[in-house]
């Protein structure tokens, strides 16, 4: 009964993973197919020494992208989950209206937010000017100073529902008696949050944060739709860098090498993740 | 005093919920309004928060110069077919994984499935392309169909296993005692009970496939085979971004997944929290 799933995964997932691993060490440019052959670490050297795409900067960008997206997605998602914990009238409809971004494609979100952040006719500029917060419209996506912030805002908007959904489900598993007992003991809301709620849903918090970290790192769609990694590489992360290598330069060898770097990071991360989760009984 | 605090707390809560709602809906509102403005009004200052008069110009353009109807049909057929097939395959693989006795085999398989979940599809673009180009499998919707089933099969299996885990084995045993064979017990007793689970698997797969961009733009070159995300992408690269056509295309591209989400929200949330790794 498992054979169809096995065949598909072996042929179309595991084989290309291995093939990609091999390609990372090959010269493989689609413009020049006659020169395909092994070049050892040549691709990795080329990526790290590329003057137009500062590798160190791209790695730093990746970390900034992951860290700030995650912190705000989690914080705001948790806030929303707490607000929705107790049933209220219309909660079903409300949740459909705030959770729908989950179902929208990252690429579409990138395009929509690119339009919202448009330097001339964007609604964000318009609102900020009307409120008197800024004097003149800002080129959110054309100015390297603001571009990373803008793509992170879009990503935060996208990720709130995920955390809210997961944490809300966990919150509803906290027995009400715990809150009642603590109220009798004189605990206020704040104390309840830190002494009951958070300890109780800790496994969900750990697993969602760990999984989401990995997921955000490998989520190029929003950036691809908003800036394509620009301006001046200010929003270039490893994932978009890899896609550009393949789409624009047709350099599959270097693309595969970046993929190899990403995969190694993922594997390392997965090992750490499994270690933590087996120690703490995390529900995946 | 205490009553006052309670009222203030309640108002703050409603305010906060309102802010979340506003933030969630603003982008959707803005793209919908833009799509009904018509090209001239989009680029006028100051911005209008409601179109002066409802204009279908952008939609007419979308279906005029681009074959948007064709792209939409391609996407719809692909997403429906692959999600359905993935659901069927994962019904069997999930059931087998749930009922199998060999613990090592089960855990090993699960681990192998979880691992593929961590590999983002765009990593596989180049090697897949090189592999399949050798067999002349590029620029075919049938290739995308296979790739999409594969893309969602691992998490579909993980999800379906966790749904089957909840159905006690004793039910099947009872059915077998009553004279069913194993297959009959599966189809007549177990599968009907997992209908919500199957709905979750299907909607999950549908949303993910409908939204997929990178594999599709790697494998499809000809215009009449494009999917909706590929078409949107091509609108950008053609001649700068014209937001009239693009906003209309975006609105239409959002519709199917939003409809699925509206109807299957309960199942999707169950699926998400049930242990699917995919965000």
Number of helices of chain A: 12
Multimer state: heterodimer
Order of helices and strands of chain A: HEEHHHHHHHHHHH
Main beta-sheet strand count, sense and barrel state of chain A = 2 strands, antiparallel
**Rg of chain A, Cα atoms, Å:** 23 Å
Query: Span between N and C termini of chain B?
Result: 44 Å
The percentage of residues in β strands of chain A lies in under 5%
User: Care to count the β-strands of chain A?
Assistant: 2
Would you report the number of β strands of chain B?
0
Class computed from helices, strands and strand pairing of chain A: mainly alpha
Give the % helix of chain B: over 70%
| Average pLDDT taken over every residue of chain B | 88
> What would CATH call the homologous superfamily of the largest domain in chain B?
MetI-like
- The helix content of chain A, as a percent range, equals 55-70%
What is the CATH fold-level name of the largest domain in chain B?
Answer: MetI-like fold
Low-pLDDT ranges of chain B: none
Q: How would you describe the shape of chain B?
A: globular
Order of helices and strands of chain B: HHHHHHHHHHHHH
Q: Quick summary of this structure?
A:
The complex is a heterodimer of chains A (284) and B (279). Chain A is mainly α and 284 residues long. Chain A is 69% helix and 1% strand.
Structure description:
Helix content of chain A is 69%, strand content 1%. By secondary structure, chain A is mainly α. A two-stranded antiparallel ribbon of chain A has the order 1-2. In chain A, helix 5 crosses helix 7, helix 7 crosses helix 9 and helix 11 packs antiparallel against helix 12. In chain B, helix 3 (57-64) packs across helix 13. Chain B folds into two domains: 2-35; 58-273, Orthogonal Bundle (MetI-like fold). The model of chain B has no long low-confidence stretch (mean pLDDT 88). The longest helix of chain B has 34 residues, at 2-35. Chain B has helices at 2-35, 39-42, 57-64, 68-99, 103-118, 121-133, 141-165, 169-177, 182-193, 195-211, 214-219, 228-238, 243-273. Chain B has 279 residues and is mostly helical. The interface between A and B is large, with 81 and 84 residues.
